[in-house]
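User: Structure tokens for both sequences below?

Assistant:
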Amino acid sequence: MSIQTVSQIIRSRRAYFPKTYSSRPIDPSIIEEVIENANWAPTHKRTEPWRYRIFHSLSSRQRLANAIAKAFKEFVPPEAYTEAKAQDHAEKALLSGCVMAIIMHRDEKAGLPEWEEIASTAMSVQNMWLTCASYEIGSYWATAGFIFKLGDILELKESERCLGLFYMGYVQEGTFAPALRNPIADKIKWMQ
């Protein structure tokens, strides 16, 4: 593999939101490859803290959508709640070809700081995102506060914590998100 190929995949990765997804289904073999690549993220002491709950079938995504609407209602203060906002969040699961709940599993015996396990899980998600980009599948990592209310549907263990939902779907024809990055020169300092 060339550095040009790697750079192109990294630089083509974008957040594509579910409203831009087409109805084209994602083959389960692609989802399996996305997950397999996620499994190759760096991990301190080989704790491999990433776990995923996969909602691929329409019925599982419908159950997730219902749980999202309920969690949103429980999380948002009554004065800020509207049925339309709850349905907007829930609809994302139905517009997607697949949704994965991103779970961090803590191994207390390993003695690692939580931030290291979160960072490792995030690197796993980056591997998923890059794999999706190489398949021209749009994806988006949502971290809304109500995710902490999804424990029941995710069947979380005491040692697990949901870090967000990863939405995936083929992007509708003509939808392209331009690259928005400030120059790297503004972010570095060569130390002497």
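Moving on to the next sequence.
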Amino acid sequence: MKPVGRFLIIFIPFLLAACATSPTGRNQLIIISEESAIVQSAQAYAQTMNDYEKKGQISHDKALINRVKRITGRLIYEALIMRPDTRSWQWSMQVIDDPKTVNAWSMAGGRMALYTGLIEKIQPTDDELAQVLAHEISHALAKHTAEKMSVAMATSLGALVIAVATDSRAVAMGASTAAIVAITLPNSRTAETEADQIGLELAARAGYDPRAAVTLWQKMSKESGGSSYDFFSTHPSSGKRIEALDALVPRMMPYYEEKKPHPVYPL
């Protein structure tokens, strides 16, 4: 049997066995376990934050940090109810002092970052900022980092099969490298839609107005011209996305209108 045949016998069943289901019932390709993604993301997050620390870009604005952590803490409290197993995560949030960057991201295990440019240029209300942070938390809850890492690894494995068949050399991407890829490559449109849906509910349950998701994206689109900000490189925007969020609002309003205390997870 030719080398490519032997690899495909192993490779194809491996991918078929790697199917998982997201919180919304969507099929996902998960080659790298969430546990592995969390470990590798922790390493990547520590390195990333260390680099920002060396450049003096970790924010020390106490008012802003307290605001972000208060909102994030309320969202995480609800996230723990949605996925009780995430109580073991080392949830963390860093505010990066970079007024030119309008962005936010999350990694596996609840590790997140927000750039001051998003605050300064968009000037979101608390309800609008909660939509950004809930969206990022939702990526973590839905295992999107593990999914992106898996897609990257699958692509590398596919390249390796071809390399062996053509008698050339290739090195599969390591998991720690894939963790970095997870915060630089855009999520799929499907993953973005999923995070919109989960995030909208998460924010509403935490007491934040779901209608703010619509006003947030309207402000983002207006301020950026629709394409120039970093946030749009990983969070594609369109009129259809705003319409989809607006259509979800009526379903989320009962959660928002429910009268209950909103505890804050300590960060």
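User: Anything stand out in the second?

Assistant: Residues 33-142+169-257 form one domain.
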